[in-house]
Each structure stands twice: as C-alpha cells, then as structure tokens.
Amino acid sequence: MHYNDFVYHLFLHKDLDEYLIKYKKFIITNFQRLIREKILVSFNNIDYVFNYYDDFYYKFFIAKIINEENIRVEYLLKIEYNKVCDYSKDKYLYDAILSLNEDINKLKLIDLVLDKKLKSKIYMSLKNKELIKKNIKNLTHEDALSFLLSLSDEEKIEYINKGYYVPILICSLSIENFYKEFGLISDTNKLECIDKIEIPSVKFEILSEYKNLFTKEALNAYMSRIYVDTFDKNVREKIQRFLNNEAFDTIVYSNTSLNKQKDLNGLNPLIYDLNLAKNYSIGLELETSHKDYLMFLNLYRILSDWTLKNETTVTNGVEINSNIMHYNKKSLRQLLYVCNFLNDYGFKINDECSNHIHIGFDAFNSVREVKTLLELFANNENIFYMMANEKETPLRKYYASYARPISVYLENAIYLHKLSDTKDLFDFMYELNCCQEDRLVAINFSNVFSFRKNTVEFRMSNGQTKYEEILLNIVLYLKLVDTAIKHKKIDPKLFNYITDINVPEEERKSLILRLLFKDNQTLIDKFNERYETNNEINSKLQRTIHYNRQVRF
Q1: Which of 63, 300, 433, 437 has minimal CB crowding within 10 Å?
Q2: Same domain, 134 and 161
Q3: Residues 227, 192: one domain?
C-alpha cells in the first residue's frame, strides 16, 4: 500500500470501517505522517473500529479523524495515555485539541496534557475570554502577559489591583489612565515602571514628579537617556533646566560644530618641537571614574567625535576615546579641552585606571623598523615604564595584568625560534602576534593590519587627566616610534650599546634620552625626573621590570 493511495481512499469516504481495520499496521507504521493530515471521516460503527485493535497509535488516529467533534472527544478520552511511553504524546494531544472548535471540548481534554507550556497555549486558544481569566494561573508568564496586554484598560486595571505584572500593565494603559493609576501603585512598582515607559515626554514628567524616589546619580542617568532618545526640542530644554548640571550642558554645547569651534579657538596648548619624520596618526583611550558615569555614557560624545564608553575594568568607569589625532595644535587643542573638562567636572583617576596611546602602524614600512622599536624598548623596558608616568607616581597596582612586560614574550620567542627571518612585514607581524598571546602587554600589536584600527598600542601609562602629563606620554611614544623608523641614522655601535642589558641602566637611560630628544634639554630633564623619582618609588614597591635574556633579532 502506497501512502498517497491510503490517504486518497480516506478522502473518498468509502467502506472505511473495514478498510481501516485492514490497514491497522500501516496506520501504526505511518502514524507520524498521518497524524498531520487534515482528515475527518464518518464511521458506520465507530465503537467496532476503535476497539478492534489495542494499540495507542491506532486508537489515537481513529479517534482524531472522527468527523463529529463531541464523539471525537469522547473517544480521545477513552485512550489510556498513562500506559504510553512516548514523549511526544502531549504534542499529539495538543494538536488534536487545537483542532477542536468548542471551548468546552478543549477543557474536557486539557488535563490529559502534562506539558505546562502546551497546556498554556490551549487555554490561550479558548474563544471565551472569561474562561481564560478563570485559568490565568495555569498560563505561562509569557502567555499570561500576552493575554493581559490584549485586554481593555478597565480589565487591565482590575489585574493591576490584584498585583499582576503591574509595571508592564501600567505602561500599556492610555496616557490618561496611566497618570491616574501610576500614583496609586507602590514605590517599588513605580521604580520598576520607569524603564518600561517608552514615550520620552511621559517618562520625563514621571521622573520630575517622583524625583524623591531616586538618587541624584540615577536621576541624571535617566534624564540623559531621555535626552538622547528624543528629538523634541522642548523636552530637551526641560531636561536641561531640570538637571541644572553644568557638565551635562557643557557636553551638549560642545557637540555642535559652531560651539565646538568657538571653545577650541580660545585654547593655546603647550606643544614641543619634535622634528618628526612623518605626520603620525594618534589615538587616545583615557580611563576614568565618575559617580555620574551612566549620565556620561548615555551622552556618549563630547566635541562631537570624542566618545565616552563604558570601562568595565574600572569602578564607575568612563573611557574617553579620541578621534584620529595628529601631533599638531588642532588636535592638541581638543585634548586640552577634554582634559580641562575632566578636571573641572569631577572625573577621578584610581589604581584601576590606565591611559592607552595608539600610533598608526601605517608609518612602518619594513620589518627592520619594527625590530628596532622592539629592541630599543624590550632591552630598556624598565626605563620606559618609569618614564611613562608623572613623576613620583608608582605603577598602578594591576599593571602586570593589563600591561605585562613584552620582553618576556620576545625573549622566549627568539629562544624557541618562533620568529623567522622573513622580510615580509605582514608575515612578521603575524608571527609576532602569535608570540604576544593577547593584547594585554606593554606594546600591543594585535590591532596591526585590522580594518578597524591599524595601530600599535602603548599600554604602560597609568590613568591621567592632566594635559601636560598626557602630552609627555604622547611625545615619548612618538619619539620612540620615530627613532625606530629613522633607524638608519642611528650609529650601530651606539644602538648595540644602548640595547645591551649588561650596560648599567642609568647609563642606558641617559643615552636613550639623548637619542630620542637630541638637544631638547627641557624634555630630557622632564623624563629624567620621571625616571629617577618613579624608579625609586617602584623599587620599594617591587614594581620594577627585570631583564632575563637579551632581545636581539
């Protein structure tokens, strides 16, 4: 017997009693397919056909195809489901029940279904809304909420008063009823409601009226979110008047091109003459902490293209990311503006904070330039760590976790021959990244050749908001990169001497400063002072970098 022939015969409604009995084994074998067919038939003697063969699949199929609904239910109830070991029996019943038209018949069968989700869906299929209400405790949370949201405001209020999904149902009411009912619910429910209010103007009015329920920081966070989410000028003006927050207003003001330019034109940032070989691109990541961090994260931008991002490694962390900068007055004006803002409006630096400075890797053209950078840095790593922070400043507590010395990785890579003699820059950087393991090292190359950010990242510096100190860090890393790129101008004997870890560190430090800054005594003195004071402090704290093997390619 072919399956299609069998089904076709059922649709003909001819001699079905004997036909079904004859093909009982076929029914059992093809049960999974047959049960999905929309077949309804009439029998001459249904009792005879149903009881002819004692098998669950046979009996269930016979019962399910009975044309008259009441009789169909009667025979579905005769099946002993508790004796059946089939995990899909609830699904068979569910499909059979949903095919019924009468609510009363569905309710006769529903207790046979053990799966709570399927049972909930059956209740949801009832035509009589009052029957669903009567059984609402048998619905899943999702179905109960879906049903309640479909009710009229009057009916919703009835359930709100019973404590059902108060925050969600309140927010689904008409504006008129929302305001009326919101004042009647508990403070706990009011707090839960706030996040679910979608209309900015309504959310603002509620926050304004019930401001006593919130901390100042929470209120600032909510209001800033509304400000960003709405384009309604009136609502935005109301928010600014309500907050009366100078930091908020300053950011908003800075994010328009005209205002931004006015503010920047009046600044005259300090800038050192570095005689750089190239117009290097620069990027800054300044990690800070602020009690109103959520407000600033919601505003997201300052000066229109500097971003404020969440820094999860810092308590109440706000990371300020610069646009693509260059070493010129235009970019440094922006840095000075941001530093002034951070210092004026309560941004704090703690032991969790760091500053990361990116320099565009597109400045590098050869493997030799990268190797020069690495040899200069790795063989003098402690010197650079000490010079990378404001004078009299210990290395942050977690530097060894987030800015690990790179010399260890390079020493091992060279010793284990993990770096080939390739002169292809792409291949060399791939090998170098494999040795680096992750980005949490002093000089991070993991961004190199990426589409989003093709940079080398310097991660040693502690958190800092003072313009002069951040500028010195930029200068230090720029000159280190610039010197490596101009490696052909370095005397080979001097280079070998400076990168020899057996030469006293004090002597190497003096030679490095002269190599980087030539006759600029101001910069030499500043970095010398950083090194001397920081090395003394960090030596006592045992936060200095030690050299194991020479890094030489």
Answers
A1: 437
A2: no
A3: no
The amino acid that residue 392 corresponds to is: E
Place of tokens 């009789």: 71
Residue 356 CB-half CA count within 13 A: 23
Residues 481 and 521 in one domain: yes
Cα(4)–Cα(447) distance, integer angstroms = 62
User: How far is it, in rounded angstroms, from Cα 39 to Cα 61?
Assistant: 10
Residues 324 and 185 in one domain: no
Question: Angle, nearest 10°, between helix axes 407-415 and 367-378?
Answer: 120
Domain boundaries, position 161 = 151-198
Whose tokens are 């195809």? That residue is 65
Which structure tokens are listed for 76? 């579905």
Residue 264 lies in a domain: no
Sign of the torsion formed by the C-alpha atoms of 49, 53, 54 and 58: negative
Q: Are 308 and 248 in contact (CB under 8 A)?
A: no
Compute the distance between CA of residue 427 and CA of residue 283 in angstroms, rounded to an integer. 25
Structural domains counted in the chain = 4
Instruction: Name the domain boundary from 119, 142, 165.
Output: 142
The dihedral formed by the CA atoms of 39, 41, 45 and 50, expressed in degrees to the nearest 10: 10
Residue that is written with structure tokens 């927050």 in the block:
245
Q: Do both 234 and 327 map to the same domain?
A: no
pLDDT by residue, tens only, the chain of 553 residues? 799 999 998 888 778 999 999 999 999 999 999 999 999 999 999 999 999 999 999 999 999 999 999 999 999 999 999 888 899 999 999 999 999 999 999 999 999 999 999 999 999 999 999 999 999 999 999 999 999 999 999 999 999 999 999 999 999 999 999 999 999 999 999 999 999 999 999 999 999 999 999 999 999 999 999 999 999 999 999 999 999 999 999 999 999 988 888 889 989 999 999 999 899 999 999 999 999 999 999 999 999 999 999 999 999 999 999 999 999 999 999 999 999 999 999 999 999 999 999 999 999 999 999 999 999 999 999 999 999 999 999 999 888 889 999 988 888 888 888 888 899 999 999 999 888 878 899 999 999 998 888 999 999 999 999 999 999 999 999 999 999 999 999 999 999 999 999 999 999 999 999 999 999 999 999 999 999 999 999 999 999 988 878 899 8
Q: Which two tokens stand for residue 203?
A: 């959310």
Query: Would you call 525 helix, strand, or coil by DSSP?
Result: helix
- pTM of the predicted model as reported, rounded to 2 decimal places: 0.82
